[in-house]
Amino acid sequence: MTAISSIPSMAFPKARAITDALLAPPQTTINLRDPQSLRAEVAARLQPELARSPACGELRVDSRLLHLACSGRSPTDLLGPFEWSPDAARRPIGLEVVRAWVAGTSSLSAATADVIERIASRRRSHAREAKDADATLSFWLRSLPAGARGVVQAEALRWATHLITALDWPAITQRPVTIGYSEVVTEPRSNVVIAGRADLRVQLDRGTTEGRGDLSAAAFFVMGGGHPTSSSPLELGLVAVASALARRDPVPTRVVGWWPECGRALVVGIDDELVSSTIGAVASALSRAPSLAFTRPYHRTRPSARTIHRTRETGATGANPRPDERRRPATLRRP
Amino acid sequence: MSVTTPRQTRDVVRRDLLLALRGDRSKRSVVDPGLAGGLRAWLEDGVCALGACIPDGGRPIVIDKRSLAMCAHDPGDPDRGGHGSPTPTVAMACGALIETLFRQLITTGRIQEPFAEARAALACQRRYRRISAFIDSLGDRQRRDLATEVERQAGILVRLWPPIPPRWFPRTQERLCVPLCGGRVLLVGIVDLMVGVPMSDRASVGLVEVKSGERHHSHRTDLSFYALLETIRSGAPPSRLATFYARTGEMDSEDVTECSLTSMVERVIQAALGLARAGHRRVRGPGMEPPERRALVGSST
User: Fold this and answer.
1) Do A235 and B104 touch (CB under 8 A)?
2) Which of A164, A291, B74, B76 is most buried (most C-beta within 10 Å)?
3) pLDDT tens, A272-311?
């Protein structure tokens, strides 16, 4: 049975309670099936839904699409071409601001302005490459008048403040941390992309493994808007599914979801059952809107992922990989 | 004898504004760890009967400042169109423009071309689409008058609002959302400015609303409602509530008391029951896009 718990809303200080839940040593053994078997299940469960409609464009199944499908609503509004907006831009910009803050910047407001300026002036020569997330964001930011750019800055600042105040950072940064994590897995025959993302990936201390197999040693932190719903565990599980399919890093032992607007947190343990339920929810999402899904391409560009490593011994901060050093998305293969 | 230059006068006013916002630290209330839980339990008890009226996945009852005013038979702030006006008005457009300029000032520290910048800010936000279209539809003279008033009020904002210290973690347009009864009842609000982070010992958060019109008694009610939401959300009540009037440069501020929170609980319960009786029609701001879509999305964004 998947372990799902919530952090009491009266827990104080909340940042400490959330951080303790995030960094707790792994308690359960995670014996997820091997990636091949998992891919076979994904292919088997998605195939009937995919067979109903011809694939005309890329369909990206992310937590928003999953949420809409689980709540029984039509995801029509998600299926148009992706366009940048202050709401869409706050996360990628906010992540950069949090990285700057972790690196020692004291004024979040100044850091946000710097980040926006840096992104806007980045890679001018490639700004017309519409498939590149950084380039399109850069192009969009440059096209904004001052007032609209102020809104983008305010949204990003608010988002970054939520992330910063949600956690006890001295405890977090003692470990290898990835600020902004995303895993995108593509099924080439169907043009379905499973996109999972987390705002933070933290390496955990490995628990004892005597006779219980390998304990996963990572945890994810995801920040959401609004309030948690009955489908939230599945939405949180999506990043674990993408991670389990890609298997570049250890599968997370848990995902902590935090909804700052309502002050609630969910802690979801990752196991086979949750992974299976999430794959089922993805299939269900496709079955609810196949005709809509494949009539118009739905592109969302992949946010950049950077890593800050701070070793306990030296306290040194490692460099993030350059964009051209990032690995290409993993691909689902036929079983 | 000390001579006060205009610059010094401005600095004194700015300092006073920050002091008013911060309040007397020694008088800040001690956080009662049971208060927020008690308020939530009270609200849950009051609205639990509504659970049977709304099926799982049904449209929730959304309570915001407008529905609160409507249920209290309060005509609402006329400068915000009350709660019955079907179309945006010039006063509401002015309010939206000043709200967004205030946000820009707090975030970036500057306003250069008030009217043009505020219009660009509204145009890029879905929730202001109707207000933005309304401003576009104004005649030249009306638009010029609006621009003059916005520039005048923006001048007051720039003159009186100092930079907020970074350690106060200022955030603008802060959204608050308290789901009750398993998500069947939603209490929602957007605060213009929030400063400070909740602490476990003393109340330490300040809420600020900016108004472009005249004083109205509903402004205090709005802030009390937001104080209740913040208390339940974070577990600690805010310490200070303030309303800044950009028209005159005045600011009303007060401490948060347990009494104001408990009286607001009663009002919210009555509003929820009243809306349920009325078939829980959603009350929406005349110039606003439906916020329920935003409020209900629980996925990560």
Assistant:
1) no
2) B76
3) 888 888 888 888 877 765 544 443 333 343 333 333 333 2
CA-to-CA distance for A11 and B198, rounded, in angstroms? 12
Residue of B nearest to A258 (CA): B300
B300 in a domain, yes or no?
no
Which residues of chain A does B109 touch, with a Cβ-Cβ cutoff of 8 Å? 109
**Nearest-CA distance A130 → chain B (Å):** 20
Q: How far is B129 from chain A (nearest CA, A)?
A: 13
Q: Find the mean pLDDT for residues B235-241.
A: 92
Residues of A in contact with B114 (CB under 8 A): none
Distance from CA of A117 to the nearest CA of B (A): 12
Determine whether the interchain pair B236/A85 forms a contact, defined as Cβ–Cβ distance below 8 Å.
no
Q: What angle do CA B40, B229, B182 make, to 5 degrees?
A: 50
Mean pLDDT of chain B: 84
Q: Cα separation of B84 and B87, whole Å? A: 9
Contact A187, A40 (CB under 8 A): no
Residues of B (130-159) whose Cβ lies below 8 Å from A = none
Instruction: Please tell me the total count of domains within chain B.
Output: 2
pTM of the model: 0.85
Any chain A CB within 8 A of the CB of B124?
yes
Do B132 and B195 belong together in one domain? no
For B193, which residue in chain A has the nearest alpha carbon? A158
| Inter-chain touch A64–B297, beta carbons under 8 Å | yes
Distance, in Å, from the CA atom of A109 to the CA atom of B51, rounded to the nearest integer, reads 43
The three-class DSSP label of residue A28 is: coil
- Give the whole-angstrom CA distance, residue A196 versus residue B78: 46
Question: Is residue B177 located within the same domain as residue B55?
Answer: yes
Tell me the longest C-alpha to C-alpha distance in chain A: 61
Residue B14 in any domain: the answer is no
Question: Closest chain B residue to A68 measured between Cα atoms?
Answer: B297
The residues spanned by each domain of chain A are 4-77+168-322
Residue B96: give the domain boundaries.
78-160
Residue type, B79: D
User: Bigger pLDDT: A254 or A329?
Assistant: A254
Measure the CA dihedral A32/A36/A39/A45, to 10°. Answer: -90
Residues A13/B201, Cβ–Cβ less than 8 Å: no
- Beta carbons of B108 and A113 less than 8 angstroms apart: yes
Q: Say if B145 falls within a structural domain.
A: yes
Q: How far apart are CA B170 and CA B179, in angstroms?
A: 25
> For an interface test with B, which of A6, A7, A10, A16 has the most B Cβ atoms less than 10 Å from its Cβ?
A10
Q: Please tell me which of the candidates B107, B197, B235 has its beta carbon nearest to residue A154.
A: B107
Residues B34 and B55 in one domain: yes
CB contact under 8 A, B179 and A153: no
Residues B239 and B145 in one domain: no
Together in a domain, B64 and B85: no
Chain B residues touching residue A13 (CB < 8 angstroms): 198-200
